[in-house]
Structure formats: C-alpha cells, structure tokens
Design a protein that fits this description.
- The structure holds two protein chains of two kinds.
- Chain A is mainly alpha-helical.
- Chain A has 13 helices and no strands.
- Chain B has helices spanning about 5-10, 20-35, 35-60, 90-125, 130-145, 145-155, 165-175, 175-190, 195-200, 205-240, 250-260, 270-300.
- Chain B contains twelve helices and no strands.
- Chain B has one domain: Orthogonal Bundle (MetI-like fold).
- Chain B is mostly helical.
- The chains are: A mainly alpha, B mainly alpha.
C-alpha cells in the first residue's frame, strides 16, 4: 500500500469531519433564534415568573457560554472543545455529559448496524452472484428476485412497522420494544441477557436485512453479467478450469470489487435508514437518542450525536478504503 | 402532479411515422409491452393520483384537520379509514397528504436535478480545477449520512416549516447524486462523433451543450428526476417521522410521526398506520419501477430486465 494513497484517504476523512463540524457550528448560528433566550423564556413561562429580568440573564449566560465573543473566537473555542472531546452537557438530563450518553448508545447501534449491514451485504452479494451465473438454479432469479427487489424499494422503517405489528403485536412471537426486557439490568456476562437482547434485536435487524438484500443482489448480478464477457473468463474456460473455480476465483472475485466500493458509499445511506428503524422499535441506540433529543430540544445532544455519527461513518469509510487495495491492488497505482 | 407520467409518455422513442395519432399510440403501446417495469410503475403511480384526485372531489378535506371528527374511531361507513387520536379523519388525511408529500418530492427532485445538471455540465465539459472541486464536494457529500445533515438544517430553520420550506431543506442535498451520474454521462457523450463534429464546425460550448447534448440526455434526465424524487420523498418522510417536518400539514410523513408519537401500534389502532404504510409502499414501488423502466428507455443497450 502506498503512502500517498493512505494520506489522501486520510485527508478526505479529515475534510469530512471538518465539514460536518463547521456546518454544525455555523448553521444554528445563521438562524434568527437565540437558544439561550428561548430556554430562559420557556423556563420563566413554565415557572410563572415575570419576564422582566430576562434581558440581563440572557447577557449573563451568553458571557458564561462565550456567546458574546466574535464569531471567529467562538469557532476557535468550539474546535478547542472538539479536539478535547468536550461535547458539553445534556440540557434535559443535566449532570450527564453528551459524551457519556453517546458512549452508552453507540455500542447498540454499532452492533445492530454492523451485523445487519454485513449480513445483508454477504447474503445479497451471494444471491446476486448466483443470479448472474448461467449454471446456477433458475428459481433464484425467477422467484426470489422480484420480492427482494420490491422490498428494497421500501424504506427500512416502514418494513419495520409492518414486522412489528405482525410478529410482535399480533402474533406476540417477539417483544414489542426496547433493546432488552423492561426492568432488567444489563449484564453482559450472563447468557440469558444475551438471549434477551438477541430476541429484541431480531425484528429491527430483519427489517434492515430484508430491505437491503435486494440492492446488493441487483448490483452484484449486473457485475457478474459484465464479467462474463471478459477475455480472462473465456480464457479460463478454455483452459478447462472447474466450474466452481471459474465462479469463485474468476467471476465473483472480480465482480466483488465494485460492490465494496458501493458499500463504502452506502454506509451513510444505510445509517440514515437505521436511525429510523431504531425509533420504530425504541431500540436503545443512537437513533432513539437522537429522536428524544430532537423532541426535547436538547441542542447539545443533537449536535453531539450528529457530529459523532458523521465522524464514525468517516472512520468506517476510511477503513474500507484501506481494505480495498488488498482486494484490488490496481487501485493504489491509479492517480485519481 | 401528473407531470412525471405524461412527460414519460411524450418522450418515448416513437418512430417518426406519418401514420397519425393511432399509429403513434400503437408504437407507444408496443414499446410499453416490452418494458413491463414502466407499466407497473405508471399504473401504481396513476392509481395513487386517481385516489387523491377523486378523493379530493368527493370528500370533505377539512376533516384532515385535528379535532374535526370524533377521535379514535375504527373504520366505519362514515369514516372509511377511521379517525386518529387527535380527531383527524384518516381518509381525508391520506387524500390531502399524499399530494403534499409528492409535492415536496417533486419540488426537491426538480431543484436537485436542475442544479445537478448545471454542475455536471460545468464540471464535465470544462474540466480542470472546477471539475476537481465539484467532484470532491460530491464525493464527500455522498459519504456523509444525508439525513443527519438535513436534521442540522431543519433544526436551524425550525419554527414551523411550510411544505415549500420542507422541499427546500430536502433539496439542499438532492443535487449530489444527479451531479455525479449526469457528469459521467456527459463525459462519455463529449467524446461521441456528433459532439466532435459540432465542435469542429465552430459551435460554442454553451451552444453544443444546449443544442446537441441536452436533447440526447433527456431520457436519462427523466430517469434521474424519478430517482431524485424518490430519494427526496424518502428523506422528507424520514425528517417528518423525526418530528422535523411541517407540523400543521397532514403529509404522509407527519402521519407516521403522530403514529410513533402516540404509539398507535401499542394501542392496536391498525387503521391509523396501515393507510400511510400502504401509500408509502405503492409510492416507492411505483417510483422504483418507473425509474427502472425509464433507465431501460434511456439506455436500451443495458437491457437489465427486472
């Protein structure tokens, strides 16, 4: 792996984080609202106070949060905080920091998203490879493809709602919400707790997997069809190689490359969908946390989550970029 | 609202026959028979439009407002889809909301496609530094989860969004994907013989783009429009389900928001969430098939039968 390739990819990662953080800083400041005044007015109203002293209080708080300084000073300050992982406190559940709340929710999301994305990618790619291979059984493309394609057109969370209603509410086979049974204290060393979590995670996972398989299958099938016209395939066949070698080592290996590229591109899209799946199932991950933060106007939590998630996606993309040259050594030699 | 289907019907590659309308129609029908996804897509979307059109004519849409009917009733003769917890008639909500959701999608789709096409031409035709910048922005923009960026934007402009503002929020990112795909189309088109001939015969850059390339790109642009509309609808419903939509409009996404907000599922109020789900499924499956059909129309050599 060449150093300039790695450096370039890392540069792109830094740009992603910088852009996300900068948007996060400037967009809210472009809006005419003043979060401090709003919060104080809200509290004054709910407490039934007169609003006479509010102006002074707003000034006081703005000085405290550094909001009275010029914009560039605030921006530098903001970066200083970010570099030190200072994500501020939650407004709603005050003594807790945004970082600790995210630390609690993130493993759930990574677990759900990692497993489902990987499974959907593997199953979908495998099915797609079979669909694009002349020697494979025909029933796959005849009976499996149409329903999978239809499912892939439907948003994850809509499928989630259907599954939830049918299997959890009507049939009562699966628990209806949460990440584990209510009242249970998370204990990752007990097998029973794992089983409980698996039961709760199955429906959300299923709604992501079922909806995503079609996408991967379609892409893989198209690539398999393309590879079959290539010279090296004809040559390999003429050499008299076994069908399974042709399929795995020649066709699949080459068709897989664009799939990995598109996996890197799709991560953000998958995450957007998974956020809403979590909300539908009240799964205790980042998505549900974000939903609650938005509902409660918990400004810092919303910002922290968005920045944290975009950074994580950036890291994931960076890792995929590093894996990619191992699959396809040509990529590092290309000057793109 | 009907602009997508009619535009699709008009731009079909009919042989320039002198046989008049009947002949042309037969040509269109003959083509449609060879392109089943196009038919499926058109039929699904037209039936959705028909539902809204007829519904709007015969039904009192004021019932889509909260507190206009008794709350929490299951479907009955008076309320075909039942009513929700806040006293909306769900039939009226669906009839009034589907066009709103489509409007958000189409507005954002058009803006995205327009901006995307302009940027793609600038980027691919002129190349150089500007191409590097546009390509870089698009590549990076596409890796970032769009929903999250839209959440930042929607929160920044908060205070009640109107349906049009909602469309603008969604349009903020709707141009990224069209820019990328159209750019690669333009790149390959730039090397074709007829463009070279036009250049040699002294046509200026903008002239070549408008007179030579755009007409040839039209079917492809139409397919991109459908794709952009579908993702805009998806994004808008996602934002709305999070509670960042036009709170006072009965769009499909807002209906889902209320479904989640009041846990309609746990209350067993199936009539509350089944209609929006069915409409979303018809809409997306219809748009998906339409875009596959148009893809095949724009790129007959592809022949990716579905």
């Amino acid at each position: 792996m060449r150093a300039d390739y790695v450096l370039k990819r890392f540069g792109i990662f830094l740009i992603i984080v910088w852009a996300a953080a900068t948007l996060n800083f400037f967009l809210p400041r472009l809006s005419p609202q003043n979060p401090v005044r709003e919060k104080l007015t809200q509290q004054a109203l709910s407490g039934g106070y007169l609003q006479s002293g509010i102006q002074e209080m707003v000034k006081e708080y703005e000085a405290k949060f550094g909001l009275d300084k010029p914009l560039w000073a605030q921006y530098l300050n903001y970066w200083d905080d970010l570099v030190h992982f200072q994500f501020n406190y939650s407004i709603v559940s005050y003594p807790r920091t945004v970082l600790s709340m995210m630390g609690e929710a993130l493993p759930w999301t990574i677990g759900l998203l990692g497993v489902t994305t990987l499974l959907a990618f593997l199953i979908g790619t495998f099915l797609g490879a079979l669909m694009g291979w002349p020697g494979a059984p025909k029933f796959i493309s005849n009976y499996l493809l149409p329903p999978l394609l239809t499912l892939s057109a439907i948003p994850y969370y809509v499928l989630g709602l259907v599954l939830l209603y049918v299997f959890a509410f009507q049939a009562k086979i699966f628990p209806i919400f949460g990440g584990y049974a209510a009242g249970v204290i998370p204990n990752w060393s007990s097998l029973a707790f794992w089983w409980d979590v698996a039961q709760h995670a199955l429906l959300p996972a299923l709604s992501i997997i079922l909806a995503a398989i079609g996408f991967w299958a379609l892409g893989m099938r198209a690539m398999m069809v393309t590879t079959q016209g290539e010279d090296y395939m004809i040559f390999a066949e003429a050499k008299g190689l076994k069908g399974s070698t042709l399929f795995l080592r020649y066709a699949v290996r080459n068709a897989l490359l664009p799939q990995v590229t598109s996996l890197a591109l799709q991560l953000g899209h998958i995450l957007s969908g998974a956020v809403l799946v979590e909300i539908v199932f009240s799964f205790p991950g980042i998505g549900t946390m974000l939903y609650q933060a938005i509902r409660a106007n918990d400004y810092f939590v919303t910002q922290g989550i968005i920045l944290g998630v975009i950074t994580s996606i950036g890291i994931a993309t960076f890792i995929l970029d590093l894996i990619y040259p191992i699959l396809d050594p040509r990529i590092t030699y290309r000057r793109a | 609202m009907a602009s997508v289907p009619t535009a699709a019907a008009q731009s079909l590659p009919v042989e320039p026959s002198e046989g008049g309308l009947g002949e042309k129609l037969r040509g269109v029908l003959g083509y449609m028979r060879r392109n089943p996804p196009l038919i499926v897509g058109l039929v699904l979307l037209l039936s959705l439009l028909l539902f809204c059109g007829i519904g709007a004519l015969v039904y009192d849409l004021n019932r889509a407002r909260p507190l206009s009917v008794p709350p929490g009733l299951p479907p009955a003769a008076d309320y075909p889809f039942g009513t929700d917890n806040q006293g909306r008639d769900l039939f009226a909500v669906m009839v009034a909301g589907t066009p709103l959701t489509l409007r958000i999608g189409l507005m954002a789709g058009f803006i995205g496609l327009f901006v995307g096409t302009v940027l793609a031409f600038v980027s691919a035709y002129y190349g150089g530094l500007i191409d590097t910048i546009i390509r870089g922005v698009v590549d990076i923009g596409l890796t970032v989860p769009g929903l999250l960026v839209m959440i930042i934007i929607a929160i920044a402009v908060k205070g009640n969004l109107s349906v049009e503002q909602m469309a603008l929020v969604v349009a903020c990112l709707a141009w990224l994907y069209p820019t990328r795909t159209i750019r690669s189309q333009v790149l390959s088109m730039r090397e074709r013989a007829y463009v070279q001939v036009a250049r040699l015969s002294g046509m200026s850059g903008p002239e070549i783009i408008v007179k030579e390339m755009l007409p040839n790109l039209l079917p492809y642009l139409l397919a991109s429009l459908v794709g952009a509309t579908a993702s805009a609808v998806l994004a808008s419903i996602g934002l709305e389900a999070l509670g960042l939509g036009p709170l006072e409009s009965p769009t499909i996404g807002m209906t889902l928001y209320w479904v989640i907000y009041y846990s309609a599922l746990l209350l067993g109020m199936w009539w509350w969430f089944i209609p929006p789900i069915v409409i979303i499924i018809i809409l997306f499956v219809g748009l998906f098939n339409l875009s596959v059909g148009l893809d095949e129309l724009a790129n007959p050599r592809l022949r990716r039968s579905v």
